[in-house]
Amino acid sequence: MKFIIYLTLLIVPGSFTLASGRQDSASIRNKVRDSLSARADYYVLMATFTSAIKPADAVKSYKKALTTAPVRNELWEADVRTEIGKLLFKLKKDEAIAQFIKAESLYKKQSNLRGRADALDMLAKIHEKKGMLTEAQKQYTDLYKVHMEAGDAVFAGNVASHLSDVFFRKKNYDAAFSYAAMAKNSYERVCRRDSLGAIYLKIATIKRIQNKPKLAEYYVINKALPYSSSADDFKGRIRSFVFLGNMYKDQKSYSQAKWFYIQANTQSRAINDTSGIINSLLNLSVVKALIGNPVLAKRDLAEARALAKGTPYSGLTEAFNDRYPTLLRRLGLKDLAAVTMKKSADPGDLPVQKLLIHDQTISPSSTLVLSD
């Protein structure tokens, strides 16, 4: 009995000592981890404060946060790498691509759709800017799918609409139509009427270029205009009227073209859209001259010039002068016909919203009708 007691006294204290040692060791490790985690938080905080004014320093701080402590979790790392990628993109560094690729992979593992969308959007934009269309197309397509999976049908439609624009500029009209149809399907899921009006007008533009005027007319009159009207989208209605006016003008149906330009002018005045008023007046001056009403044509042109003078839209009338010299000579405005468009009045300086109307308004093919 005494032996057992002595043995117990010998063993138990030792056991207490070992257990205490293990606890102290775990405590130390926890304290070290907490200390490193706090340091990582400090670096992230410093990066946040300096990102706007010193992006390069912010990148260094974020990278220190990644290497200072064991990564807390993959979402935290993905968020940090996304911020690094955005700063590197701002600094025009190619390393941004690697950061976004890694972030997108981590988000995908964690089924984080919002994070994936953010990373894919940046990757697609970078590759598009670099002219790497194949890579950009793949990432935009993945982005479309992610938005649809997340239930963001409007964002998905916007991505498809952008791809349609990309291929339209490349004159790949079949691909442009396919992506426009994808955008239409996305917008229809949530009945986004203003977006549906815009995408149907885009589809009509493609069909017009593919020499399918009847189909183009159908999409505008039966789809684009009704959706724009039901959404109270005045800009959309103006674009549709301008589109139809241009199409009829190209077909030499000048009376019909005039009617649609008058509608565009009326709508533009209703919302006090100066650029829309100027454009519609310029269009009206052309068709009135073609119909044989030079006095009315000169009146519309004079009003357009008066509205544009001393405004950011003066480039519209100067571009008109440059593009329609024959018309101006026939109207007895030889001084305007001799003036070439000044670089300082480049229409490219105008807002994109205005240029969409301007591009459809002054058509090079229309000059041929008036040539001597």
TrEMBL record:
Top-level taxon of origin: Bacteria
Gene3D superfamilies: Tetratricopeptide repeat domain (1.25.40.10)
SUPFAM superfamilies according to UniProt: TPR-like
Protein name according to UniProt: Tetratricopeptide repeat protein
